[in-house]
Design goal:
Helix content is 28%, strand content 24%. The chain contains seven helices and 14 strands. It has helices at residues 4-7, 23-33, 65-73, 96-106, 161-168, 178-186, 210-226; strands at residues 13-19, 38-42, 46-47, 56-59, 78-82, 90-91, 110-114, 123-124, 139-145, 158-159, 199-200, 203-205, 232-237, 243-249.
Length: 250
């Protein structure tokens, strides 16, 4: 899936993943397949960076983090960085302004950032203080999971349930349709929140069979009709082997 780097506008700049259903998986794939120097971080608490990335992991407080990342970037292709956290198995999020400062100094070819949390759910709409996106972001990747199609809207599949209801138009217990997902992707209160002037490329992930692909394609087409803020929606599956399922263009 090396072509994803260009399809997701992730060749250069600061690329931020938001939403639910595959943020880390998508960012880690981009980090592994990008040919250049990669920074990887988060603006919210995050599980520890996996050893499979082969990254130099830098965990430091704000005062020490920039210098530590610069030292690591001089010797390693992939540098993953965050703050320490008191929560077991978690790292702390880095302030958007500090991420911008680090990228300016380190000059990574691309800096990848997870910018909100979803507690392993498949759908998400942001709270008032979300997502935490650096002003220097060049690309926003709003992510949803195709596993939500046909499932009842409950806390089991949705993070920020009341927000998902308000943005998608789905009521509690109602089966999720492509139109509901399209609204989540196309709404300023949904996936486009805090996107600023960045390029937006929505991703429908976990498209693991033909039925999911049909629903995801319908959702993508509907989203493109609802907004002119993006020109394509990318469909992916990260089952092994990971694959690009399709691209729905305007």
């Amino acid at each position: 899936m090396s072509e994803l780097i260009d399809l997701l506008a992730a060749r250069r700049g600061t690329v931020c993943a938001v939403g639910a259903g595959g943020k880390k998986t998508t960012l880690y794939h981009l980090a592994l397949t990008h040919p250049g120097r990669v920074g990887l971080t988060c603006t919210v608490p995050n599980t520890h960076f996996p050893s499979t990335l082969g990254a130099c992991v830098v965990i430091a407080e704000a005062a020490d983090l920039p210098a530590a990342v610069l030292r690591a970037a001089a010797a390693h292709r992939i540098v993953a960085f965050a703050h320490p956290s008191e929560k077991r198995g978690r790292d702390g999020g880095v302030a958007p302004d500090l991420i911008a400062e680090i990228q300016s100094a380190a000059g990574f070819d691309v800096l990848l950032a997870k910018c909100d949390g979803a507690r392993m759910r498949w759908l998400k709409a942001p709270e008032d203080d979300e997502p935490l996106i650096p002003e220097t972001a060049t690309t926003i990747l709003p992510i949803v999971s195709a596993k939500a199609f046909g499932e009842p809207l409950t806390e089991t599949i949705a993070h920020r349930l009341s927000r998902v209801e308000a943005v998608s138009g789905a009521e509690y217990g109602e089966l999720i349709t492509p139109n509901h997902v399209a609204r989540l992707l196309a709404e300023e209160r949904g996936a486009l929140k805090n996107a600023g002037g960045a390029v937006v490329v929505p991703v429908i992930n976990m498209v693991d069979n033909a039925d999911m692909e049909a629903a995801a394609t319908e959702a993508a087409r509907a989203a493109l009709q609802l907004t002119d803020r993006f020109d394509r929606v990318v469909l992916t599956s990260h089952l092994q082997p990971a694959r690009l399922v399709g691209v729905v263009n305007r």
